[in-house]
Design a protein that fits this description.
Helix content of chain A: 25-40%
Number of strands of chain A: 8
Order of helices and strands of chain A: EEHEEHHEEEE
CATH class of chain A: Mainly Beta
CATH superfamily of chain A: YjbQ-like
Strand content of chain A: 35-45%
Largest interface: A-B, 34 and 31 residues
Strand order of the largest sheet of chain A: 1-8-3-5-6
Largest sheet of chain A: 5 strands, antiparallel
Distance between the termini of chain A: 5 Å
Low-confidence stretches of chain A: none
CATH architecture of chain A: Sandwich
Oligomer: homotrimer
Amino acid sequence: MKAHTEYLVFETPERRALVNVTEKLGAIVAKSKIKEGMCLVSAMHITAGIWVNDEESGLKQDLMDWLERLAPVADYRHHRTGEDNGDAHLKRTILGHQALLPVTNGALDLGPWEQVFYAEFDGRRRKRVVVKVMGE
Amino acid sequence: MKAHTEYLVFETPERRALVNVTEKLGAIVAKSKIKEGMCLVSAMHITAGIWVNDEESGLKQDLMDWLERLAPVADYRHHRTGEDNGDAHLKRTILGHQALLPVTNGALDLGPWEQVFYAEFDGRRRKRVVVKVMGE
Amino acid sequence: MKAHTEYLVFETPERRALVNVTEKLGAIVAKSKIKEGMCLVSAMHITAGIWVNDEESGLKQDLMDWLERLAPVADYRHHRTGEDNGDAHLKRTILGHQALLPVTNGALDLGPWEQVFYAEFDGRRRKRVVVKVMGE
């Protein structure tokens, strides 16, 4: 069994952003030389998530609007600590914070439209995502 | 380490459906001959998901009604592309699109009521789910 | 490849609770002697979930209030079976029921604020969580 670990670093200029990381993940899998296994992608900061969906600008805006409707910017108890990002913690909770991608024949085994996004809800600061490929 | 990969194919007659795949997954794990490991089940199309919950008809209807309330059929930006399935992308986002099932003593290690469902939100077309068992 | 499996048992005095299990998981990883791999944490009962977020009391209350808003206690079809926990099945669906934690250098590879919680939505009864560490 082999394991290969890398960390992606993000510092988005906007507070909220969707960054397509599919190519980066494919390159990490290639570098790992793992032929059969799984690739974990997990946001290490608790106001960011991972979204597997479509690279389509309208849908990406739909997602952000919809998350704002379900988990709006508001006055949360969490803000008594001095923070102002309560909504970001909840938005990431709906979205999920990780994905596990199958690796088959040395490449990500994704469906025809599956793209993997880093979803930032409280950006403008340095944040990390762990990528761990495991297999043989 | 061993890995065993199969693809389930669905083409539901209804646009929305919940299909219990627990038995099929158990059979794949048995075929893999893996005794200790993990079984990934992941929808390869971005308007479908995986739900781990109860095989109870009332609850399944409750789930579908509730998803419609949170992510209703509506006029999404995504529809400018000619699609009409914006709600399906969002419904699958709430539900999640994958599950990782532990394999112990050569079988799925599930709780007493855990059942695994393929959740279709834009059916009537051919779609795939990847199942990868990894372990020893 | 090695695999190490343990089961955590919960019987919370309250119907709803968030229990921080990060230390327990760290101890299981240490006991497994696995240096590189992944640790699956998965609720085996379908009215409980796993949440990876912040150990901050205000935020934890925000989460519970928000889940009640999105998936309220109400009269669900599921209750025709004699159950009264329809909301708990839906709350766990938003939250997710599992997390996969990377193991690097023999320890959980978590971000600075990542804490792992067992989320109970229908407690006062004995429930289990499976923890499986896999790697080398």
